[in-house]
Design brief:
The protein is mainly α. The chain contains 23 helices and 2 strands. Bound molecules: fe (ii) ion.
């Protein structure tokens, strides 16, 4: 008997129990729920030859961005390939093919393939969400937006409509359409109280448009919307801390860091990036952060051979260089340089070459106090920095370091130009930019007086 998933698409499985567990898996994945692997495990237990469940496991492993999980992703791919070789639908085979591309290092090809699958099966919200996840890792906001807009009319009466709206809100925000992003995101969260990505998309709008107080209110009034999440919940707390940082409320930032953002000393790359990014922003604003680098740097010492996701590598380098682990920072830089040379055919190899290596060199030089040379390396990385992935808010740490490197090197004109460029893209002057422009004014006045 043919089975169908919650969105009406055929599944090559026999057990209704497996289908129910699969639908719960997809629902949980859309909501960034911690329960996602539990539901996936139940689906595979009910039906060990469940091809799409193996493919999902493969994607989930790769999206964790850890070299040691690639083998598990490869095993999931091989199992799924064997199963779809006997009996399957074209949709299931397309998923397997996309996972295969991802495993060869062609993440762009995998996302394009999954986009084609989405066009053929436009109500497949799992395909949609996987495209969003992969394009996010590549910093491809325009691609995220185009992917959703191609199928949006199919979600008017769809069970996953709020989550798709939440994704759309984020894609709109990343492409600078802040007003539409806020409206979509608010609507998504009203309709699905566990749409953590939608809540987070609206937080991004507040970040980019200098509305820190509204951001604080938005998040503190509805912590239940992300309480169910996996590590993603730490990232939402990170956004709350950014709003407080913008307002100069440093004690609250440090409290959130200890009580929420690093409540658990995990080594997930997204957690490390939240933490490292926040600590360096605090330091750039002159805040004493105590011995917090030590904990991060100790964890990052185990990641020097990773080279899996450039965004992750850069934050490991940041933590290592800032936490007095210069040799380990150099070792990771060598890993990135090797990837840039040896893996030019892969998406991450290209990103390493164009943005990763110069940015990592800039981070190390900044930590060493070589501000002029840090500035030149960070500036060299800047044209391609979007490709390292993440969001505008996350990559802003590299922008801030570039600006501060220029300032510390006495390059006032360069710093001012970068601040204006940053402000133009963000849509408003924030606390960070105001403080830097004020400092430039004071320094220039001092220089004029000295002449
Ligand atoms: Fe974010």
């Amino acid at each position: 008997m043919a089975r169908t998933d919650a969105f009406g698409y055929d599944l090559t499985v026999t057990s209704q129990e497996a289908v129910a567990a699969w639908d719960r898996t997809v629902q949980a994945f859309l909501a960034h729920a911690a329960a996602t692997p539990t539901h996936l495990g139940a689906a595979l237990e009910a039906e060990p030859d469940f091809a799409l469940a193996h493919v999902a496991k493969g994607f989930f492993m790769l999206l964790l961005g850890r070299r040691e999980l690639i083998d598990t992703g490869q095993e999931a791919f091989e199992t799924a390939s064997r199963i779809v070789g006997t009996a399957s639908t074209a949709r299931e085979r397309a998923y397997v093919d996309a996972l295969g591309l991802y495993l060869t290092g062609d993440m762009r090809g995998a996302a394009d393939a999954m986009d084609r699958t989405l066009l053929a099966y436009p109500r497949d919200a799992l395909a949609l969400k996987l495209v969003q996840a992969m394009r996010f890792v590549m910093g491809d906001g325009a691609g995220m937006r185009a992917s959703i807009e191609a199928v949006l009319p199919h979600y008017d009466d769809h069970a996953a409509a709020p989550y798709v709206n939440g994704c759309y809100a984020f894609a709109l925000e990343e492409t600078g359409d802040y007003r539409a992003a806020e409206a979509r995101g608010r609507d998504a969260v009203l309709r699905a109280r566990d749409d953590a990505w939608g809540v987070h998309a609206v937080a991004h709008v507040f970040d980019m448009t200098n509305r820190a107080q509204e951001g604080v209110t938005w998040l503190v009034n509805q912590p239940e919307t992300w309480a169910h999440c996996n590590n993603f919940r730490y990232h939402v707390w990170w956004h709350l801390a950014l709003f407080h940082l913008d307002r100069g409320e440093h004690a609250e930032v440090l409290r959130l860091y200890d009580a929420e953002i690093r409540a658990e000393h995990t080594d997930d790359y997204r957690d490390i990036s939240n933490a490292a990014s926040l600590l360096i922003r605090l330091e750039l604003d002159g805040v004493e952060i105590g011995n917090r680098w030590e904990e991060l740097a100790a964890i990052c010492e185990n990641r020097t051979e990773d080279g899996c996701v450039v965004f992750a590598d850069l934050h490991y380098v940041l933590a290592l260089a800032s936490g007095d682990k210069a040799q380990s920072a150099q070792r990771l830089l060598h890993t990135m340089q090797r990837n840039a040379q040896m893996q030019q055919a892969t998406t991450m190899g290209q990103v390493s070459a164009e943005a990763g290596v110069p940015a990592a060199e800039g981070l190390i030089r900044f930590a060493n106090g070589d501000y002029a040379s840090a500035f030149s390396a960070l500036k060299a990385a800047r044209p391609a920095i979007q490709t390292v992935g993440g969001s505008h808010a996350q990559r802003d740490v590299f922008e801030r370091l570039t600006i501060d490197a220029a300032l510390r090197a006495g390059m006032m004109g360069e710093a001012r130009g970068l601040i204006h460029d940053r402000t133009r893209r963000r849509g408003a002057l924030d606390g960070y930019a105001e403080r830097r422009l004020e400092r430039i004014g004071v320094l220039e006045a001092d220089m004029a007086e000295a002449l």
